[in-house]
Batch of 2 targets.
Target 1
Amino acid sequence: MSDYKAVVIGGSAGSFAVVLKMLSKLRPDFELPIIICMHRLKHIRSGLAENLDIKSSMKVVEPYDKERIEKGKVYLAPSNYHMFVEFDGTISLSIEDMNNQSRPSIDYTLSSAAASYREKCLGIILTGANKDGAKGLKDIADKKGFTIVQDPKTAEVDTMPKSALKIMQPDLILSPDGITDFLNNLK
Amino acid sequence: MFLTINDIREIGAQMSAKIGVDYTGYSINFFRRRVIAMFEELGVRKVQDLESMLDDAVKADEIAHLMTIPGTEMFRDPSFWRALRKILSGKQSLTVWMPNLTNGFELYSLMVLLNQIGINNIKVVGQVQSDITLKDIKTLSIPEKYDEVNRSNFERLESGTKYEDYFESTENGIKPKSNLLENVTFVKGWFMDSAVEKYDLIIFRNILLEYGPRLHEKAVERLAASLNDGGMLAIGIKEQLLTKTTNLKPHEAGESIYRV
């Protein structure tokens, strides 16, 4: 795992079930921070992180602005806030305009992680119903980070993975179980 | 447009000197994003072009306006407004400071809430950094298709009143009724430089997100110094107080309402 500083995941429609299963099957000693940006209803503040936390051996939180990113924790973008990774190893939040009709925007989270972690960033795009996240994943690839796209054939909605595949060539295209196995085999 | 750290620092220093807002204390990445958006809006191609624009008072005012982040919706986080209504219910008088207004969504949300509670003696001071911002607030009009979220949030207030009691449909969109601003006084300027007055409530939600740690800490200290005994500070639900030097204590922790 020393090759990477964090795993950054983006997803939209259908991605909650994928993330839930993934977190429940990660090995208990998985220590890389996992930073997740999922499109979600903006007026529902609670429930998502709590549900993920029940199934995960890692602590799942919706971070506060300027919260430090720590090993072994999962950070879920809060509803109605953009979430960024800062150079000093903290999370920042923002209520700036929507991007790709989304707040939180997956592009914003992934692109900021690319700038902060560069080649030590592991980016993953999951199922989803719009193109948000494609540019962010390309930014990670452009900085020599490692990129994975969920196999569109396994996606509940394939727009998001297909949008990523249109503009970049990921290192791997995997099913949800394949992504979990990949993460569990990181050394 | 690509801006280096040195560009950002130079721009921050120039803007701070000419506009009077401490942009040098803003979070670097946030400030970079806003400057790029502002440059695109104004058609600025070179950093050097900014200096002459800042010497033009009208253009400087527009720049100050473009640097602010508009509120996303009225009654954002309805549970916050419900909690505030509960806290304020029964009060006979109230003084409020909103030190950094943007598009007026927070102000109108507050004024609707105070009207629902029925406090007799209200004084609200709304502070802006730009004349354009002030004009936007006073003439606020929301296209009907964008008003749906405001109505939905209003319903979640569970107030027993109707949206139409406070907002009216016009040919230019949905407008707040003019009496909502009856108890509001507007002032212009950077809140950190304002003379210290004391208030019962300060609303400063989702503004600290824009600041780096140094300005964040100074701002919270400044705001805490402007509260009466028992006064409250409301910040955004995902903001936190970094400083331990104030006597602010959580009052409604889940809604980020603090009390001295």
Target 2
Amino acid sequence: MFVEVTLSLLKGFLSTVELFALTLLFALPLGLLIGLGEKSKIKVISLPLKFIIWVIRGTPLMLQLLLIFYGPGILFGYNVWGGNSLGRFVAALVAFVINYSCYFAEIYRGGIQSIPVGQYEAGEVLGMTHSQIFRKVVLLQVIKKIVPPMSNEIITLVKDTSLARVISSYEIIWAGESFIKSAGIIWPLFYTGVFYLVFSGLLTLLFNYIEKRLSYFR
Amino acid sequence: MALLEVKNIKKSFGSTQVLHDISFDLNKGEAISIIGSSGSGKTTLLRCLNFLERPDAGTITVDGKLLFDASDKNKFSEEEIRKRRLHFGLVFQNFNLFPQYTALENVMLAPKLLNEGDDAELKANAEKLLDQMGLSDRMGNYPHQLSGGQQQRVAIARALALHPDVLCFDEPTSALDPELTGEVLKVIRELAENKTTMIIVTHEMAFARDVADRVIFMDGGVIVEQGDAREVINNPKEERTRQFLSSYSKK
């Protein structure tokens, strides 16, 4: 039984990791764009982005998931996501990407703003181009600054993926829960926690390693 | 003809006029000190020369070449401004070294990005400069491993690596402990002895008197008095200069 449960949970966990990885893949760059746009002097760009960030960070992710999945159907009388499991997965992914982009945007913005203006000016008086200043002077300092808050947020994402359950997108919690009905046992549901623990443990090690690699300068 | 000619520079921030009609000349191989109380416009003047601020009026000429003319409304490309500002070097009060690079890499970075030579050549030059700054045993250190005085000397080497016509210092010792001030002043003194063309904004009056050829005293955005360094500091002609200097000698 234990082996059977473990295998089934592994399969569910694979979906969890897929959702996690794809969210990062899209949200990391999108967050940077939003973060830069939010800093833009052009109000038509910065104000709507500030508004979106306010809404996304100010409402529960679970609500956003439900709205994104059911909203189009309610508004247009047509379910854009399709009824199958892939559609649910994509809807969950879209919700996660939007939500996490906004959090990442704030981290990027904070990181970029923390670089003293003197660093830019030193680059300028040394005749560097703006792009050289960004790539050769600022970028690594920003990365060093954002690794701790990013790792926090990314570890939160591991656990937040379980919210995909509310729109019946298949992941590990679902896999664990299904044993209640099929076999009348509840321990597989709690067993899922071990998978989260191991995964976030590995991520913690990875981020510690990155932090350590960047500790050669201050 | 003077190497640097600054004529009628004016600069305001909002409604505050920081520089009123500043004009001065600087000859090749000459060191000039700018003294004055905080807020007198000394730093803004240096920033204008280095294109970190754009003057509202006036011209800047180096070696007979008009680098900046406020009445010329054509916007220069970023490329053009970069080329022009390379006539000047700037050493900041807070050093502003790049923390992720060693002392040697800090000095080499800009020449490398500007393709000023092959790596071996640039490295040799950077090592020579750091050696000249008395830092031959600190080349592989990162800024946070260096004292303030050492960091400032790296910053001086970094500015020199691009061979500026005029090297500007913005209060180079103001962020340093009194103990570390001396080592930085010593290298600036050596640069003066080697006829490096320099503009030094400083609060070290004795240093200005002994090292600079000429002194400019600024107050409220105007040049109140300028002339031979010893003359201005030992026998100021203007009442305002006297007041300022006496407030210093009391300390």
